[in-house]
Amino acid sequence: MMRRGDLLRGAAAAAGLAAFAGPASAATMVTTQLQWIKDVQNAGWWVADANGYFRSEGIESNALAGGPNLASVEAVVAAGRADIGMDQFERVIDANAAGADFVIFAALYQKNPAALLSLPAHPVRTARDLLGKRVGVQQGGKVYIDAIMAVNHLPPNYTEVVVGATPDPLLQGACDAYVCFVTNQPLQLAERGIASVVATFDDLGYATYTDCLFCTRDYLKANRATLVHYTRALRRGWLESTRDPALAAHLAVSKYGVELGLDERKELATSRAQIPLLIGPETRAHGMLWIDKVRVAGPIYASLRATGRTALPPVDRLVDTSILSAASRA
Amino acid sequence: MRAVAVGWPIVLLVLAWQLWIVAGNVPSIVAPSPWAVLVELAHDPLLYGHAALATIGVAVLGLALGTMLGVALAVAIWLTPFAAGAMTVPALLVQSTPLIATLPVLARLLGYGEQTVIAAAVVITFLPTFVLVGAGLRTSPAGAEGVFAALGASRRARLVLLALPAAVPSTLVAIRIAAANSILAALIAEYLIGQFGLGRLFADAQSQFLTSRSWAASLVATVLSVAAYAAARRFERYGKRFTA
């Protein structure tokens, strides 16, 4: 006897087949919970959508805005409100430690864009330079400074100053170093003609992937083909965004993030600044959005151990590169 | 009996919450069960006690300073009508801007630290006092103004003997309104830039997916807000016995 579940699965399979039959049939909807607002930092989704890369793969992409008011990307995905989430490597690890079962299948930035910003009068170039300094972090950022000190075998002898998302406290002298993103605040200062010193977390010994794409293990098992199509389209979108950063900025400003009132000049600056983060030796070898298991097992796990996370899962259980590999094959 | 009459919706709500978690198989990173929250509270009561004390300290200081500031500004306006234009507009402006937007400005003026957290509570609590006391100063009993004028009372005597006593009931109302808000303001400021308190505890717990802890912090904050409102209402009733 055929049970109801089988009937539903049969219908879903039929719908799946129909999705790839041609552009006229209904596409498979994939909902992505972004980490941040709909600006150019999510350029790949906008280019892949506008240029029809998703459509030609039989995917309809629905990207949900993230940002400071979102409790957590992980909760949205765990609750089934999104199929795919995008967040920092550490957050996915912590969510799994708290009972979730997520698999990371791709990563956007190949280098950690987080950095310490300081002024030339009191430059911070190494972890040792932080000793005795006042470090401006946004709420929740202290753990990373502690980790940088631990990785470098230094005591956490610095003062935490909790600040906001603009580098003004640094300019006002409320702190000596400020945690920034290389794609954001240093560009703001440069635009205002202010020289600054930038030391990335990578340079300071804290390695991570800041923009991992993940889904639940169940979703990955049940929707492998969909994920491959989705990833292939998204890769094309991101690759095109590095070739035409102006298009990516324009799409964010005029279409996908239109209600945000973004400044096209700033978006273009960010769009250009993120190119060296998106492309590295590993993406040249394996394609865009690559996540490297050797790097995870080595420097990234070493960084995480420095934050006190000792019970780390086997890399093969957490990271699955088979989707990326399948997406490379036409 | 009264406890049952007041408490049954809360009991029902908690039961529905537990049912939702269990029946819906809700992952713990989405929401904890009420039982998990209670276990978390019982596991580390000192953590919540210390955080609650810090938040209460900020709220009480903010309420006291905010009330004083509100009364002082209302009196200034009562004394000099010119001050009305100079103060009412900025007062309304500060109040109608969300705290999230005013906080960076406050931090820039006062620095990134606890003083700014307290200032946030002051900003939130002062306007009800300012408006209500301002109105209260003008509600002296009918004919009293005439009596004071006939006796040739000075402006100061009229303030101390007539206007200020008339404003006491509205001051008590203002404190009742501001008390729970002062807890809320302390939480927001602690969450964004604080080093201590329930708001900071909530922020840290959230960043580590400790949902039981973040919900426990919220629960303690809710209890504090309700207690602040209840205490202020009792204070208002107590005060009114002397002014009625």
Description:
Chain A is α/β, with parallel strands linked by helices. Chain A has two domains: 4-110 and 208-327, 3-Layer(aba) Sandwich (D-Maltodextrin-Binding Protein, domain 2); 114-200, Periplasmic binding protein-like II (D-Maltodextrin-Binding Protein, domain 2). Chain A has 17 helices and ten strands. Chain A has a five-stranded mixed β-sheet. In chain A, strands 7-6-8-5-9 form a five-stranded mixed β-sheet, with no helix packed on it. In chain A, strand 6, helix 6 (142-151) and strand 7 (159-162) form a beta-alpha-beta unit. Mean pLDDT of chain A is 90; it is low at 1-24. Chain B has 244 residues and is mainly α. Chain B has one domain: MetI-like (MetI-like fold). Chain B has ten helices and no strands. Chain B has helices at 2-23, 34-43, 45-79, 81-96, 99-110, 114-136, 144-150, 155-193, 197-207, 211-243. In chain B, helix 2 (34-43) packs across helix 10, helix 3 (45-79) runs antiparallel to helix 8 (155-193) and helix 8 (155-193) packs parallel to helix 9. Chain B is elongated, with a radius of gyration of 22 Å. The two termini of chain B are 31 Å apart. The model of chain B has no long low-confidence stretch (mean pLDDT 86). The chains are: A alpha/beta (330), B mainly alpha (244).
